[in-house]
């Protein structure tokens, strides 16, 4: 059993691409966690999609042994966290399992928006922080400027900041020494009753559900009977282990340690992240505070292109949910697209990754509808409905008000781009709350409706600032808005997959753009097809797709308007009217994709 004073639990936090996973590699290598032959770049990013995109999606843990310069042996438990705003729930629960954090700042880029968000999360739970200035081997590195920014923008003392390079390995030993001296050891009673925090859980094909735990008090051992406090279920521990980074079986985990257990659970829903685990023989009176479950904020419909792949899609979604409990889905049907699922995500990157994994791992061709957010609809009879899908909006006469989610956004940008960013935020109904400067970089805070941000805000921000601006957000509240449902009708039939909730001021313009786009994308039929945009029963935009015209008069020779010609034209007119009445307009898949792209281009 290790002395609890010689354990250090810490998370690695930083903005995207500032070098978290690379520095974790160097630390693992210098502590001898893996041999030279076993090492590979981003060793903790195990998913193919993480390695391809060069991003971390799931937080990963490693237990290492380190012999310090003072001759003592220490145990280091590292958690490498994601940097993207969509996965900030992974960061928050990783921080709860630790006492300190290493804050990595790229010395060529300085402080970015996600740096701020992650640091504030760590400071909120009283973490000690070791600042690390990465990428000192690059010619653009500016240590003094970066230190000044950290002090001005975040307010952390940088006297003990460690300059290092994840690429060359320079400064890694200094980081390890700072971890030992600056970060506190865990507090906990080794001899007390078992008190344990459930940090994460995922599904393994061979072992069932694997549970990542942080032992607060007592110890957890093999064959012990444990109890989950939120469900009151009891289980027997079949396996106890740690990641070194390879999974290694041990007999016991003691107070202050992080490791994993398996108990033969087959479904993830039985393991609630943030739950308290205790000894079934000595149950605790009160549970640990835990943390808020992650709530999906972006919803969209996923439909198989080929309706025969519906079951394949359903199986794929169920398997993905085993490893990603933050993603939700429920069946829905659409008259235009057939059977599919309404899925909830934490953000657009999360949506992109789930759809890419479905297409890659389960070989399903997908069609996604317009992403939307969750609206709160207050009815006249005092009931409240959470609206995920615009097509299920109740009759407007029964609705009192509609509220939409708002976010608090932090944008950090070089000041030459500030004007265009402010204009974009104002166009998206934003309210500026703060503006401050650190050197030539502006930190601007806005309150914005999530609906305006969710689609293309980040892409446009990056393109208008040549990639230099960074953006982070958190949801603050729902606010009342002048929102309407924009419906699209093709040949007088509503197309539910194209319905969208939109602010009244933008409805006319968007309706016109959608109609123009559909006019180009829906092929001509034998009859004329009206394409209309409507709010309730009021048509606000219309385009007409002309029908093919067959010349029925070619066989009649001679000029002039005769009764015979008129009869033939009347007959053709009636035939067209009949085919319009009974004819079905097939809307091609390109039309749905084209309408999705309109929002991107706006």
Any chance you could write out the topology, listing elements then pairs?
Layout: E1 7-14, H1 20-30, H2 48-53, E2 60-67, E3 73-80, H3 88-96, E4 100-106, H4 113-124, E5 128-134, H5 143-154, E6 162-163, H6 172-182, E7 195-204, E8 208-217, E9 219-221, E10 225-228, E11 233-236, E12 239-243, E13 247-250, E14 252-254, E15 258-262, E16 276-279, E17 298-304, H7 310-323, E18 328-334, E19 338-345, H8 348-361, E20 366-368, E21 372-373, E22 375-379, E23 384-387, E24 399-414, H9 418-427, E25 431-438, E26 441-449, H10 450-453, H11 457-464, E27 470-480, E28 483-490, E29 493-494, E30 500-503, H12 504-521, E31 529-535, E32 538-545, H13 563-582, H14 589-601
Parallel strand pairs: 1-3, 1-4, 4-5, 5-6
Antiparallel strand pairs: 2-3, 7-8, 7-16, 8-15, 9-14, 10-11, 10-16, 12-13, 12-15, 17-19, 17-20, 17-21, 18-19, 22-23, 22-24, 24-26, 24-27, 25-26, 28-29, 28-30, 28-31, 31-32
Question: Can you put this structure into words, describing what you see?
Answer:
With 602 residues, this protein is an alpha+beta fold. The protein has five domains: 4-182, Rossmann fold (3-Layer(aba) Sandwich); 195-279, Elongation Factor Tu (Ef-tu), domain 3 (Beta Barrel), CATH 2.40.30.10; 298-373, 2-Layer Sandwich (Alpha-Beta Plaits), CATH 3.30.70; 376-480, Alpha-Beta Plaits (2-Layer Sandwich), CATH 3.30.70; 484-601, 2-Layer Sandwich (Alpha-Beta Plaits). The protein contains 14 helices and 32 strands. The strands form six sheets. It has an eight-stranded antiparallel sheet. Strands 2-3-1-4-5-6 form a six-stranded mixed sheet, with helices on both faces. Strands 22, 23, 24, 25, 26 and 27 form a six-stranded antiparallel sheet that branches. The longest helix has 20 residues, at 563-582. Mean pLDDT is 79; it is low at 42-47 and 50-57.
